[in-house]
Amino acid sequence: MIITGLTTHAIAVPLGTVFWMSREPYRTDSEIIVEVTTDEGITGYGQIHGRPMAEIVTILDNFTELITGMDALEHLAVWHKLFDVTTSRTREKMDPDLGQPHFGAGKRPQIMAAIAGIDIALWDIKGKALGLPIWKLLGAKNRPVSAYGSGGYYEQGESPLKVVDEMAGYVEAGYRAVKMKCGGLDVAGDLERISKVRESIGDAWLMIDANSAYTLEQATDAIQTFAEHDIFWFEEPLHWYDSARGLGRLATRTHVALASGESELHRWGIRDLVDLGGIRYMQFDCTRAGGVTEFLRVTAYAEMHGIMVAPHHDPQIHGHLVLAAPNGFAVETFPNPERDPLWTELYTKRPEIRSGMLHLSEDPGFGFDIDWRTVDRYRV
Ligand SMILES: [Mg+2]
Predict the structure, then answer these.
(1) Residue-range definition of the domain harbouring residue 186
(2) Could you tell me if 165 and 242 lie in one domain?
(3) Distance from the CA of 65 to the center of ligand 1, in angstroms?
(4) Has 162 been annotated as catalytic?
(5) 261 CA distance to ligand 1 centroid (A)?
(6) What pTM was estimated for this model as a whole?
(7) Of 105, 131, 157, which residue constitutes the final position of a domain?
(8) Tens digit of pLDDT for each residue in 170-213?
Protein backbone atom coordinates (compact mmCIF):
# COMPACT_ATOMS: atom_id res chain seq x y z
CA MET A 1 0.00 0.00 0.00
CA ILE A 2 1.72 3.13 -1.27
CA ILE A 3 1.63 6.54 0.38
CA THR A 4 0.32 9.02 -2.19
CA GLY A 5 0.13 12.24 -0.20
CA LEU A 6 0.06 14.13 3.06
CA THR A 7 -2.18 17.05 4.01
CA THR A 8 -2.09 19.05 7.22
CA HIS A 9 -4.92 20.86 8.97
CA ALA A 10 -3.89 23.17 11.81
CA ILE A 11 -6.72 24.34 14.02
CA ALA A 12 -6.89 26.56 17.09
CA VAL A 13 -9.90 27.37 19.24
CA PRO A 14 -9.48 30.52 21.34
CA LEU A 15 -10.64 29.79 24.87
CA GLY A 16 -13.10 32.04 26.66
CA THR A 17 -10.99 31.93 29.82
CA VAL A 18 -7.23 31.95 30.29
CA PHE A 19 -6.23 28.73 32.09
CA TRP A 20 -2.94 29.31 33.89
CA MET A 21 -0.54 26.55 34.75
CA SER A 22 2.23 27.35 37.23
CA ARG A 23 4.08 29.59 34.82
CA GLU A 24 2.33 29.52 31.49
CA PRO A 25 -1.11 30.47 30.21
CA TYR A 26 -3.25 28.11 28.17
CA ARG A 27 -5.26 30.34 25.83
CA THR A 28 -6.10 28.15 22.86
CA ASP A 29 -7.04 24.54 22.29
CA SER A 30 -5.06 23.57 19.22
CA GLU A 31 -4.26 20.52 17.17
CA ILE A 32 -2.65 19.62 13.86
CA ILE A 33 -4.48 16.89 11.98
CA VAL A 34 -2.24 14.93 9.63
CA GLU A 35 -4.00 13.20 6.75
CA VAL A 36 -2.05 10.50 4.90
CA THR A 37 -3.55 9.07 1.71
CA THR A 38 -2.73 5.80 -0.04
CA ASP A 39 -3.14 4.26 -3.47
CA GLU A 40 -5.70 1.82 -2.06
CA GLY A 41 -8.07 4.57 -1.01
CA ILE A 42 -7.43 4.19 2.72
CA THR A 43 -6.77 7.46 4.53
CA GLY A 44 -5.14 7.62 7.95
CA TYR A 45 -5.39 10.47 10.43
CA GLY A 46 -2.74 11.47 12.89
CA GLN A 47 -2.92 14.22 15.48
CA ILE A 48 -0.19 16.47 16.81
CA HIS A 49 -0.34 18.41 20.04
CA GLY A 50 2.75 20.56 19.57
CA ARG A 51 4.07 24.04 18.98
CA PRO A 52 4.81 26.27 17.19
CA MET A 53 2.23 24.87 14.80
CA ALA A 54 3.48 26.80 11.75
CA GLU A 55 6.97 25.31 12.10
CA ILE A 56 5.60 21.79 12.44
CA VAL A 57 3.40 22.28 9.39
CA THR A 58 6.42 23.46 7.36
CA ILE A 59 8.34 20.36 8.39
CA LEU A 60 5.38 18.15 7.46
CA ASP A 61 5.21 19.85 4.06
CA ASN A 62 8.85 19.01 3.53
CA PHE A 63 8.38 15.45 4.75
CA THR A 64 5.68 14.85 2.12
CA GLU A 65 8.15 14.26 -0.65
CA LEU A 66 10.27 12.02 1.59
CA ILE A 67 7.47 9.59 2.36
CA THR A 68 5.42 9.70 -0.83
CA GLY A 69 5.94 6.39 -2.63
CA MET A 70 6.89 4.51 0.55
CA ASP A 71 4.81 1.57 1.76
CA ALA A 72 2.28 2.85 4.31
CA LEU A 73 2.43 -0.43 6.23
CA GLU A 74 6.21 -0.22 6.67
CA HIS A 75 5.92 2.25 9.53
CA LEU A 76 9.38 1.50 10.93
CA ALA A 77 11.03 2.30 7.60
CA VAL A 78 9.17 5.61 7.50
CA TRP A 79 9.97 6.38 11.15
CA HIS A 80 13.68 5.84 10.78
CA LYS A 81 13.92 7.71 7.51
CA LEU A 82 12.34 10.75 9.14
CA PHE A 83 14.27 10.38 12.39
CA ASP A 84 17.49 10.48 10.37
CA VAL A 85 16.65 14.10 9.60
CA THR A 86 17.44 14.98 13.22
CA THR A 87 21.07 13.99 12.76
CA SER A 88 21.97 14.07 9.06
CA ARG A 89 22.82 16.72 6.52
CA THR A 90 20.65 15.17 3.86
CA ARG A 91 17.76 17.60 3.98
CA GLU A 92 19.33 20.84 2.83
CA LYS A 93 16.20 21.68 0.81
CA MET A 94 14.24 22.09 4.01
CA ASP A 95 15.54 25.45 5.12
CA PRO A 96 16.59 27.29 1.99
CA ASP A 97 15.85 30.72 3.45
CA LEU A 98 18.37 30.31 6.23
CA GLY A 99 20.92 28.53 4.09
CA GLN A 100 21.18 26.05 6.90
CA PRO A 101 21.95 22.59 5.61
CA HIS A 102 21.88 21.00 9.06
CA PHE A 103 18.13 21.14 9.38
CA GLY A 104 17.83 19.04 12.49
CA ALA A 105 19.63 21.19 14.98
CA GLY A 106 17.35 23.58 16.81
CA LYS A 107 14.11 22.18 15.47
CA ARG A 108 14.20 18.71 16.95
CA PRO A 109 11.04 19.09 19.06
CA GLN A 110 9.12 20.14 15.96
CA ILE A 111 10.61 17.32 13.87
CA MET A 112 9.67 14.80 16.56
CA ALA A 113 6.14 16.25 16.55
CA ALA A 114 5.91 15.93 12.77
CA ILE A 115 7.08 12.32 13.00
CA ALA A 116 4.40 11.75 15.64
CA GLY A 117 1.61 12.92 13.36
CA ILE A 118 2.76 10.80 10.43
CA ASP A 119 3.39 7.72 12.54
CA ILE A 120 -0.06 7.91 14.17
CA ALA A 121 -1.65 8.26 10.71
CA LEU A 122 0.24 5.17 9.51
CA TRP A 123 -1.02 3.15 12.48
CA ASP A 124 -4.54 4.38 11.69
CA ILE A 125 -4.05 3.15 8.12
CA LYS A 126 -2.76 -0.21 9.36
CA GLY A 127 -5.82 -0.67 11.54
CA LYS A 128 -8.18 0.33 8.77
CA ALA A 129 -6.41 -1.94 6.25
CA LEU A 130 -6.80 -4.92 8.57
CA GLY A 131 -10.26 -3.94 9.80
CA LEU A 132 -8.97 -3.82 13.39
CA PRO A 133 -9.08 -1.20 16.12
CA ILE A 134 -5.56 -0.28 17.25
CA TRP A 135 -6.06 -1.88 20.67
CA LYS A 136 -6.82 -5.19 18.96
CA LEU A 137 -4.01 -4.78 16.44
CA LEU A 138 -1.75 -4.57 19.50
CA GLY A 139 -3.30 -7.73 20.89
CA ALA A 140 -5.40 -6.36 23.72
CA LYS A 141 -8.85 -7.39 24.88
CA ASN A 142 -11.36 -4.56 25.08
CA ARG A 143 -12.48 -3.27 28.45
CA PRO A 144 -13.10 0.21 29.84
CA VAL A 145 -9.84 2.14 30.35
CA SER A 146 -9.32 4.06 33.59
CA ALA A 147 -9.40 7.80 33.11
CA TYR A 148 -8.69 10.65 35.47
CA GLY A 149 -10.27 14.08 35.45
CA SER A 150 -7.66 16.74 34.76
CA GLY A 151 -8.04 20.47 35.36
CA GLY A 152 -7.63 22.61 38.43
CA TYR A 153 -5.95 25.50 36.62
CA TYR A 154 -5.56 29.00 37.97
CA GLU A 155 -8.31 30.61 35.94
CA GLN A 156 -7.63 34.24 35.19
CA GLY A 157 -9.92 36.56 37.11
CA GLU A 158 -11.24 33.77 39.34
CA SER A 159 -10.50 32.84 42.92
CA PRO A 160 -7.73 30.22 43.14
CA LEU A 161 -10.20 28.28 45.30
CA LYS A 162 -12.53 27.73 42.34
CA VAL A 163 -10.64 24.46 42.01
CA VAL A 164 -12.43 23.08 45.08
CA ASP A 165 -15.87 22.88 43.46
CA GLU A 166 -14.34 21.86 40.14
CA MET A 167 -12.57 18.81 41.57
CA ALA A 168 -15.58 17.84 43.66
CA GLY A 169 -17.72 18.05 40.51
CA TYR A 170 -15.47 15.60 38.67
CA VAL A 171 -15.72 13.11 41.51
CA GLU A 172 -19.48 13.56 41.55
CA ALA A 173 -19.48 12.80 37.80
CA GLY A 174 -17.85 9.45 38.51
CA TYR A 175 -14.10 10.07 38.38
CA ARG A 176 -12.12 8.16 41.00
CA ALA A 177 -9.01 10.24 40.35
CA VAL A 178 -8.56 13.95 39.69
CA LYS A 179 -5.64 16.22 38.95
CA MET A 180 -5.05 19.88 39.77
CA LYS A 181 -2.26 22.38 39.16
CA CYS A 182 0.22 23.58 41.75
CA GLY A 183 3.23 25.88 41.70
CA GLY A 184 1.29 28.95 40.57
CA LEU A 185 1.07 30.32 44.11
CA ASP A 186 3.47 30.15 47.01
CA VAL A 187 3.42 26.94 49.01
CA ALA A 188 1.00 28.34 51.59
CA GLY A 189 -1.42 29.43 48.86
CA ASP A 190 -1.31 26.05 47.16
CA LEU A 191 -1.60 24.26 50.49
CA GLU A 192 -4.92 26.01 51.05
CA ARG A 193 -6.20 24.91 47.65
CA ILE A 194 -4.97 21.34 48.07
CA SER A 195 -6.29 20.89 51.60
CA LYS A 196 -9.73 22.20 50.64
CA VAL A 197 -9.83 20.01 47.54
CA ARG A 198 -8.93 17.00 49.68
CA GLU A 199 -11.86 17.81 52.00
CA SER A 200 -14.21 18.12 49.03
CA ILE A 201 -13.28 14.90 47.19
CA GLY A 202 -13.24 12.40 50.06
CA ASP A 203 -10.95 9.48 49.36
CA ALA A 204 -10.64 9.99 45.60
CA TRP A 205 -7.07 9.95 44.29
CA LEU A 206 -5.55 13.43 44.00
CA MET A 207 -2.69 14.12 41.61
CA ILE A 208 -0.90 17.48 41.52
CA ASP A 209 0.94 18.88 38.51
CA ALA A 210 3.58 21.58 38.89
CA ASN A 211 4.37 21.97 35.17
CA SER A 212 8.08 22.35 35.96
CA ALA A 213 7.64 25.16 38.50
CA TYR A 214 10.20 24.40 41.17
CA THR A 215 13.86 24.10 41.99
CA LEU A 216 14.81 20.92 43.84
CA GLU A 217 14.73 22.67 47.22
CA GLN A 218 11.39 24.34 46.48
CA ALA A 219 9.91 21.07 45.27
CA THR A 220 11.13 19.29 48.38
CA ASP A 221 9.50 21.90 50.60
CA ALA A 222 6.29 21.83 48.56
CA ILE A 223 5.78 18.08 48.55
CA GLN A 224 6.71 17.72 52.21
CA THR A 225 4.02 20.33 52.94
CA PHE A 226 1.34 18.90 50.62
CA ALA A 227 1.93 15.22 51.38
CA GLU A 228 -0.31 15.06 54.45
CA HIS A 229 -3.28 15.50 52.11
CA ASP A 230 -2.64 12.14 50.51
CA ILE A 231 -1.14 13.08 47.15
CA PHE A 232 -1.30 10.27 44.61
CA TRP A 233 1.45 11.65 42.38
CA PHE A 234 3.58 14.79 42.04
CA GLU A 235 3.94 15.61 38.35
CA GLU A 236 6.78 17.47 36.61
CA PRO A 237 7.94 19.18 39.81
CA LEU A 238 11.30 20.47 38.57
CA HIS A 239 12.49 23.05 36.09
CA TRP A 240 13.07 21.49 32.68
CA TYR A 241 16.86 21.64 32.90
CA ASP A 242 17.08 19.47 36.01
CA SER A 243 14.31 17.07 35.19
CA ALA A 244 16.18 13.76 35.49
CA ARG A 245 18.92 13.74 38.14
CA GLY A 246 17.18 16.38 40.24
CA LEU A 247 14.03 14.30 40.15
CA GLY A 248 16.01 11.31 41.35
CA ARG A 249 17.17 13.28 44.36
CA LEU A 250 13.63 14.44 45.04
CA ALA A 251 12.47 10.81 44.91
CA THR A 252 14.71 10.02 47.88
CA ARG A 253 13.11 12.83 49.92
CA THR A 254 9.41 11.93 49.61
CA HIS A 255 7.21 8.86 49.65
CA VAL A 256 4.88 10.52 47.10
CA ALA A 257 5.17 8.95 43.65
CA LEU A 258 6.74 11.14 40.96
CA ALA A 259 5.28 11.36 37.47
CA SER A 260 6.91 12.82 34.37
CA GLY A 261 7.56 12.31 30.67
CA GLU A 262 5.10 14.49 28.76
CA SER A 263 7.91 16.84 27.75
CA GLU A 264 10.30 14.13 26.53
CA LEU A 265 11.06 13.78 22.84
CA HIS A 266 12.27 10.18 22.64
CA ARG A 267 13.07 6.95 24.44
CA TRP A 268 16.48 8.11 25.61
CA GLY A 269 14.87 10.93 27.57
CA ILE A 270 12.45 8.46 29.12
CA ARG A 271 15.32 6.11 29.92
CA ASP A 272 16.94 8.90 31.93
CA LEU A 273 13.72 9.68 33.79
CA VAL A 274 13.47 6.01 34.68
CA ASP A 275 17.13 5.34 35.46
CA LEU A 276 18.02 8.63 37.11
CA GLY A 277 14.71 10.32 37.87
CA GLY A 278 13.01 7.75 40.05
CA ILE A 279 9.61 8.26 38.39
CA ARG A 280 6.83 5.78 39.09
CA TYR A 281 4.39 7.02 36.41
CA MET A 282 5.57 7.63 32.86
CA GLN A 283 3.60 10.19 30.86
CA PHE A 284 5.11 10.17 27.36
CA ASP A 285 2.80 11.90 24.87
CA CYS A 286 2.89 10.18 21.49
CA THR A 287 1.08 13.10 19.82
CA ARG A 288 3.89 15.45 20.82
CA ALA A 289 6.82 13.29 19.85
CA GLY A 290 7.57 10.06 18.07
CA GLY A 291 4.07 8.66 17.64
CA VAL A 292 2.81 5.20 18.50
CA THR A 293 6.07 3.58 17.46
CA GLU A 294 8.11 5.47 20.06
CA PHE A 295 5.36 5.06 22.64
CA LEU A 296 5.59 1.28 22.37
CA ARG A 297 9.33 1.47 22.98
CA VAL A 298 9.10 3.70 26.04
CA THR A 299 6.26 1.62 27.44
CA ALA A 300 8.34 -1.55 27.20
CA TYR A 301 11.25 0.15 28.96
CA ALA A 302 8.97 1.45 31.70
CA GLU A 303 7.40 -1.96 32.20
CA MET A 304 10.76 -3.64 32.71
CA HIS A 305 11.41 -1.13 35.50
CA GLY A 306 8.07 -1.52 37.23
CA ILE A 307 6.72 1.84 36.08
CA MET A 308 3.12 2.45 35.02
CA VAL A 309 2.18 4.48 31.95
CA ALA A 310 -0.31 7.32 32.14
CA PRO A 311 0.13 9.35 28.95
CA HIS A 312 -0.51 13.06 28.69
CA HIS A 313 -3.63 14.27 26.78
CA ASP A 314 -5.43 12.84 23.72
CA PRO A 315 -7.28 9.82 25.11
CA GLN A 316 -8.70 9.01 21.67
CA ILE A 317 -5.15 7.96 20.71
CA HIS A 318 -3.57 7.04 24.03
CA GLY A 319 -6.55 4.98 25.21
CA HIS A 320 -5.65 2.24 22.72
CA LEU A 321 -2.06 2.22 23.92
CA VAL A 322 -2.89 2.18 27.62
CA LEU A 323 -5.33 -0.68 27.05
CA ALA A 324 -2.66 -2.66 25.21
CA ALA A 325 0.15 -1.94 27.69
CA PRO A 326 0.72 -4.48 30.47
CA ASN A 327 1.67 -1.49 32.61
CA GLY A 328 -1.14 0.75 31.34
CA PHE A 329 -2.49 2.86 34.20
CA ALA A 330 -4.89 5.56 32.97
CA VAL A 331 -5.59 8.21 30.36
CA GLU A 332 -5.88 11.92 31.02
CA THR A 333 -9.23 13.54 30.23
CA PHE A 334 -10.45 17.12 30.58
CA PRO A 335 -14.05 17.15 31.78
CA ASN A 336 -14.37 20.95 31.49
CA PRO A 337 -15.51 21.68 27.90
CA GLU A 338 -14.29 25.27 28.24
CA ARG A 339 -10.75 23.92 28.65
CA ASP A 340 -11.03 21.26 25.95
CA PRO A 341 -13.66 22.33 23.40
CA LEU A 342 -12.14 20.13 20.68
CA TRP A 343 -13.11 16.99 22.60
CA THR A 344 -16.71 18.11 22.20
CA GLU A 345 -16.52 19.63 18.73
CA LEU A 346 -13.82 17.93 16.66
CA TYR A 347 -15.40 14.53 16.10
CA THR A 348 -18.48 12.98 14.58
CA LYS A 349 -17.37 9.73 16.22
CA ARG A 350 -14.83 9.00 18.98
CA PRO A 351 -14.37 6.98 22.17
CA GLU A 352 -16.78 7.85 24.97
CA ILE A 353 -16.02 8.80 28.57
CA ARG A 354 -18.58 7.59 31.07
CA SER A 355 -18.23 7.56 34.85
CA GLY A 356 -14.52 8.11 34.76
CA MET A 357 -13.80 5.36 32.25
CA LEU A 358 -12.88 5.57 28.57
CA HIS A 359 -14.79 3.20 26.29
CA LEU A 360 -13.13 2.26 23.01
CA SER A 361 -15.14 0.91 20.09
CA GLU A 362 -14.61 -1.99 17.70
CA ASP A 363 -14.16 0.43 14.78
CA PRO A 364 -10.95 0.05 12.76
CA GLY A 365 -7.95 2.29 13.34
CA PHE A 366 -8.25 4.76 16.18
CA GLY A 367 -12.02 4.77 15.86
CA PHE A 368 -12.59 8.48 15.43
CA ASP A 369 -14.03 10.49 12.56
CA ILE A 370 -13.22 14.18 12.15
CA ASP A 371 -15.99 16.76 11.89
CA TRP A 372 -14.62 18.78 8.98
CA ARG A 373 -17.00 21.66 9.65
CA THR A 374 -15.15 22.20 12.94
CA VAL A 375 -11.80 22.01 11.17
CA ASP A 376 -12.90 24.66 8.67
CA ARG A 377 -14.28 26.89 11.42
CA TYR A 378 -11.04 26.93 13.43
CA ARG A 379 -8.46 26.50 10.68
CA VAL A 380 -5.35 28.67 11.05
MG1 LIG B 1 1.26 17.74 33.05
Answers:
(1) 137-371
(2) yes
(3) 35
(4) no
(5) 9
(6) 0.95
(7) 131
(8) 999 999 999 999 999 999 999 999 999 999 999 999 999 999 99
Give the chain's domain count: 2
User: Cβ(311)–Cβ(331) under 8 Å?
Assistant: yes
CATH number at residue 20: 3.30.390.10
Q: Tell me, yes or no, whether 156 and 204 share the same domain.
A: yes
Same domain membership, residue 201 and residue 113: no
Annotated active-site residue in 49, 128, 312, 313: 312
Round the average pLDDT of the chain to a whole number and report it. 95
- The verdict on 124 and 189 lying in the same domain is no
**Candidate list 181, 266, 313, 318, residue with the active-site label:** 181
Q: Residues 95-133: pLDDT tens digits?
A: 555 544 455 567 899 999 999 999 999 999 999 999 999
Residue 141 is among the residues annotated as catalytic for this protein: no
Domain co-membership, 112 together with 181 = no
Confidence of residue 86 (pLDDT cuts 50, 70, 90): confident
| CA angle 51–314–70, rounded 5-degree value | 70
**Helix H or strand E encompassing 15:** strand 3-20
What is the enclosing helix (H) or strand (E) of 267?
A: helix 267-275
SS3 content of the chain, % helix, strand, coil (to 5): 40, 25, 35
Distance from Cα 285 to the centre of ligand 1, integer Å: 10
- The reply to whether 187 and 77 lie within a common domain is no
Question: In 3D, which of 308, 325, 25 has the Cα closest to residue 154?
Answer: 25
**Residue 84: what pLDDT?**
87
